[in-house]
Amino acid sequence: MNAKYTEGTKVVIVNRFNEATMSEQMRRYLGTVMTIRSVGETGNSVFPYRMVEDKGVDRTEGWYWDDAMIDHEATARLHNGETAKPETETANEFSVDYYTDKVYDMLNNFSCDGDLLENADNYSKNGIRKNVTEWLTNKSKLFNILRKHPLWNEEAKA
Question: What is the pTM of this model?
Answer without folding.
Answer: 0.51
